[in-house]
Design goal:
- This protein is α/β, with parallel strands linked by helices.
- It folds into three domains: 9-342, Alpha-Beta Barrel (TIM Barrel); 347-561, Rossmann fold; 571-660, Golgi alpha-mannosidase II (Immunoglobulin-like, Sandwich), CATH 2.60.40.
- It contains 15 helices and 33 strands.
- α9 runs parallel beside α10 (318-334) and α11 packs across α14 (538-545).
- The two termini are 32 Å apart.
């Protein structure tokens, strides 16, 4: 069977249309619909079978057919047929745990909170009620899925939405837990069963799709990305939904794509054309923002998807597709240097996922440490992947354990074997230690931990090996650290300076933290052979406080362990750089866009400010035949010296691709 190829320029077309809208599809013209999509350089469009309101958009005898859908209009069928005539793929959308029709008709199927309240929007709130997949609703949804698969066979693919782990305390969920000898009184057991339940219906629905349409893609949206290793058996591809202006922010996609790209599955990013979030009717983001978001996808080897929502009457927004068309024409022009490209990385970065439970179910979400780590390594232009215990760690020259990586016995064993083979490692905070910071779990760090510091705020004094280009002062550390001393043969790279006393209501000095007193025997950072340790939750501190000496501390320690980085680039910290490889060439993507915080919680990109004449050095085993800018094909002069290609990038106008061929 041929390997599934994920289309490169997609539209995710929402159509969540309430039952009180009575003119659904009245202006729909299949030919005009498909040609609008074709003109916008789109090669795949997700169309709706069933929305969050629980309504169906095709000819069916089921009562869930949207009551306002024009009589006789097979909206889904006509969309698919028209798109296929234009050689555009048309996977089908099905909402699962959000279904207002089912929730209103069978309220006993709704998931329940600990206090018995229904999960989701309250009775007077405009929003979604959340269905319990352990109830008869699962069979109800299976009947709808079976009909869709029968009527539109063979389907191009099925996109199942709203598929998180949803704990519940309604009767169905409790009875199912008891059958599996789980205790409904324990949150841990409720979370465990919610995950088992999700895997059960994912397996069931995956088999249904594949039995009907063997070549179809299957994707369950809303799953935690750290579950990929266990759940890829149910997923044809990985999709990273990340609307930067819709609550996700501009760090969400790079955090997760760096993990997704380490698996043997095609992957894509999903943004949207909206100014804010989904269904922002009348909201269009600036072209520069959509250009940046799709360029970031290309730079990581991801395929592109842009979200839209079809107006209830069935007509696409001309201005939206003028915007999308311009951006996708630009993507298509760059695809020869992006398709089938794989990332080249030197650093493996572990993550600190935490479980959160609430509306939206149980999710494994990234922490401040993860965001800080991705942000600072991006600022430093290092090439890195997100890794986990299941990853092939031998691919990396350096591993980083940020702040609070859980040290299972198997992970300790794997890390020790990695270091025995010559790998380098940096740990921060309690990574490599017990949770209380008093016991060493990873002996290669060669430190003597003494538990958490009694001081909320301390100071870092850089030593000579890492302090030459750092301002000569005691730099404040706003997060509580661990008291450690170097072991025999290890050295202190930086020293802890403690304050006169802990600030409190009985004694304090001046407006903020107590000033530094004098150096202590405790190390702020240590080096033992190929292992470095920083005695603070450095990456959380970077995310929370943005204090630039923290970046200098990490940068200078990495230089000790990784003196020949894959890429060197003299450019502002906001410039992003990724190295990708195709069969016969290496491509360096350089992105320089400038998000502006224009509201309390919204970053906007409207202007592209070019950079000129930036020095770049790439480590390559042999000199390239040619270096040029793509897609312009402009040659760039270079020299090859000591295993590195050195050149000056003439211009970075938003997104530049430097090709070494």
């Amino acid at each position: 069977m041929a390997k599934f190829v994920l289309p490169s320029r997609q539209i995710h077309l929402d159509f969540h249309t309430g039952p009180d809208i009575a003119d659904v599809g009245v202006d729909f013209d299949a030919r005009d619909f498909a040609r609008t999509i074709k003109r916008a350089s789109v090669n795949s469009l997700t169309v709706f079978a069933k929305c969050h309101h629980g309504h169906l958009y095709y000819n069916t005898n089921r009562p869930e057919r949207h009551p306002g859908l024009r009589k006789g209009l097979n909206l889904l069928g006509e969309q698919i047929e028209a798109l296929h005539r234009e050689d555009i793929r048309a996977p089908i959308y099905i909402s699962l745990q959000c279904d207002e029709y089912a929730a209103n008709n069978w309220p006993q199927w709704v998931a329940r909170e600990l206090d018995g309240r229904p999960v989701g929007a309250g009775p007077l709130a405009p929003g979604w009620q959340i269905l319990d997949m352990s109830s008869p609703y699962q069979d109800y949804a299976a009947e709808q899925i079976a009909e869709i698969l029968r009527l539109f066979k063979p389907v191009d693919g099925i996109f199942f939405d709203m598929c998180w782990d949803q704990p519940s305390l309604n009767a169905y969920f409790v009875e199912a837990m008891l059958r599996e000898n789980l205790n409904p009184e324990l949150e841990s057991d409720r979370v465990l069963y919610a995950n088992r339940l999700a895997h059960q219906y994912m397996k069931r629905f995956h088999q249904m799709v594949k039995s009907s349409s063997r070549e179809a893609s299957v994707y369950f949206n809303g799953r935690g990305y750290n579950n990929l290793a266990a759940e890829l058996q149910y997923q044809t591809q990985v999709e990273i939904e990340a609307l930067p202006t819709g609550g996700w922010g501009y760090m969400y996609f790079p955090k997760h794509v760096r993990y997704a790209r380490t698996f043997d599955r095609p992957y894509m990013g999903m943004t949207a054309r909206f100014h804010k979030s989904w269904a922002d009717f009348g909201g269009l983001k600036p072209a520069a923002a959509l250009e940046y978001e799709t360029s970031q996808m290309l730079a990581h080897g991801a395929k592109c998807s842009i979200g839209d929502q079809l107006h209830p009457r069935g007509v696409l927004d001309p201005a939206a597709y003028e915007l999308i068309g311009a951006v996708y024409a630009r993507v298509a022009e760059r695809e020869p240097w992006c398709l089938d490209a794989t990332p080249v990385s030197q650093i493996g970065l572990f993550q600190n996922f935490r479980k959160t439970v609430g509306i939206g179910g149980t999710m494994n979400s990234a922490t401040a440490a993860d965001e800080g780590a991705v942000r600072v390594l991006t600022q430093l232009k290092h090439q890195f992947d997100i890794v986990s215990e299941v990853s092939d760690l031998g691919r990396y020259d350096l591993l980083i354990l940020p702040d609070a990586v859980q040290m299972s016995e198997s992970l300790v064993t794997k890390l020790r074997a990695y270091m025995k083979r010559g790998g380098a490692l940096i740990a921060t905070g309690v990574s490599g230690l017990s949770d209380g910071g008093a016991e060493l779990r990873l002996p290669e760090l060669n430190i003597k931990p003494l538990g958490f510091s009694p001081f909320t705020t301390t100071y870092i004094r850089f030593g000579r090996r890492i302090g030459d280009d750092v301002p000569a002062t005691d730099h404040v550390m706003y997060e509580r650290g661990i008291r450690v001393t170097p072991g025999r043969g290890a050295i202190a790279l930086a020293q802890v300076v403690e304050p006169y006393f802990e600030r409190g209501w009985r004694r304090f000095s001046s407006h903020f933290q107590t000033p530094p007193d004098k150096p202590t025997p405790f190390a702020a950072a240590t080096l033992a052979g190929r292992a470095a340790y920083i005695a603070y939750p450095l990456f959380s501190a970077i995310a929370q406080h943005g204090n630039y000496p923290y970046r200098l501390l990490l940068r200078n320690i990495i230089e000790l362990l990784l003196p020949e980085p894959l890429l060197r680039l003299d450019a502002p910290t906001g410039t992003e750089a990724t190295v990708m490889r195709q069969k016969n060439r290496t491509i360096v993507h350089l992105l320089h866009y400038s998000p502006e915080r224009r509201t309390p919680n919204l970053d906007i990109i409207e202007d592209v400010v070019p950079l000129f004449d930036r020095p770049l050095s790439l480590k390559l085993p042999k000199p390239p035949r040619r270096v040029y800018l793509a897609p312009q094909q402009t040659d760039v002069p270079f020299e090859y010296l000591a295993g590195r290609v050195n050149l000056r990038v003439p211009v970075i106008d938003g997104h530049a691709m430097v090709v070494f061929e």
